[in-house]
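This is your field. Pick holes in the following sequence-structure pair:
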Amino acid sequence: MKNCNLSKLLCSTALAIFTLFVISCYDDSELRGRLDDYELRLQALEKLCAEMNTNISSLQQIVTALQNNDYVTDIVTVMESGKVVGYTITFSKSGPVTIYHGKDGKDGTDGKDGTDGVDGRDGIDGSTPVVGLRQDSDGIWYWTLDGEWLLDGEGNKVKAVGIDGKDGENGKDGEDGKDGENGKDGKDGQDGKDGADGVTPQLKIKDDYWYISYDQGQTWTLLERATGKDGRDGEDGKDGKDGKDGRNGRDGTNGTSFFQSVTQDTDHVYLTLADGSVITLPKFLPLSITFSNTADTLEMATHALLKIDYQFKAATENVHIDAICSSDLTIILTGPVVTENEGVYYGEGTLNIQSGDRVSAWSKVTVFLSDDRTLLMRHYAFKEKKKTN
């Protein structure tokens, strides 16, 4: 009996030692490496998602500024680890907004080589939704998704900016009262309908998939996979025949930049979106005017007509031009004829100056040009032009 118990004890001890030996020999470094890589990819995607939501909100503010005839006063690069990752654009009225280039998503992890068997299955591509804006033929800006119109649950295009509400209808006139009685007041007109608000889409990543919301996060719609999926291991060969090694899983698709480029020239900033569409923003333009005659003192004969053409450039259509003159002269302004091109306003016209019986050093003309913030003045002095025999 004692020998039996001793045998059981020795067997149990041997089994425990063997188990500890097997466990200690198990190498889980590959598994931990895959988990670490997955966490890094997920963190990068979450950062990308946050930047994309910032871009969506900023893009909406940019289009609103464009509709409100706002203009850019400054553009500053956003730096990260010595690299340009975005821009902060400051508007005259609506303040600054920040946009990011968007960073490439990390590749999906390669599928592991099969152990003597059938090829491993390719890894599933990860992708990034491309949100953009496009102006339709009705003049309204709508959101796009992967180059197509973004539609709500009812199939309607999703507006990026609000539109003005309709005016209320006029109330009907009151009926004339009978003699001795006052007439009754007419009914009040119906209130105008409120303008439809613009929608700001939101993105999130959940369980490795992208989701989008049109109602400030109350409900979410599934879009596409966010992360690349590992390839499946190859299966063991049958009957001792060595199978081919499993093929590496295909890399996940890189993330897509929100903006292709941000460029500028003297008068404009150009935002090229991922789908190739371009939003043109006018820069702040100091009010300026030029004249066909640049002399400060003009020679003019008596009873003569002098014409001076002018051209101005402004960042607003609220531009006013006027002129005054001394009593020995008469001035009439023609124009301005104003045209608009991508938010810049160009005006042109003519100063028509008529002299009388005399022209002297006291003869003066002053031209005034003003917009919402600037007043410019131009003075002309005169001297009499002697007639030649």
